[in-house]
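Input record, target 12 of the design panel.
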């Protein structure tokens, strides 16, 4: 998402610049939902196999739904919630992996006996 005040330069013929979005389009919707809509149609619209081309003529064939501003806000909010949930789950997974490594070290070095560890886990 490039703002008018951003200094931005690109030199690539394979970019399509979408601009002049109305104020009624939610930023979160553009960033979170619009790419998904494009991805669903992209493969059927590109030309070529080894070097795919997405022409302006094909872009004109693309169907982009524009929900009401309220629906856009709800979709963007739901995506933000899912992203936050995913981040928390990933952090939890990382902590569990570190705990597993620490427990395996304790078991392998003999600091903890497997039977005593299993008994204490069964009590919890």
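The sequence produced for target 12 reads:
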């Amino acid at each position: 998402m490039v703002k008018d005040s951003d200094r931005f330069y690109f030199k690539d013929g394979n970019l399509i610049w979408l601009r002049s979005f109305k104020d009624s389009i939610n930023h979160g919707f553009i960033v979170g939902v619009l790419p998904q809509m494009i991805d669903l149609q992209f493969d059927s619209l590109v030309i070529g196999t080894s070097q795919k081309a997405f022409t302006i003529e094909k872009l004109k064939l693309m169907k982009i739904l524009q929900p009401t501003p309220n629906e856009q806000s709800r979709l963007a909010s739901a995506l933000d919630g899912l992203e936050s949930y995913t981040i928390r789950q990933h952090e939890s997974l990382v902590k569990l992996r570190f705990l597993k490594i620490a427990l395996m070290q304790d078991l392998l070095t003999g600091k903890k006996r497997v039977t005593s560890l299993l008994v204490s886990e069964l009590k919890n």
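DSSP finds five helices and no strands in the chain.
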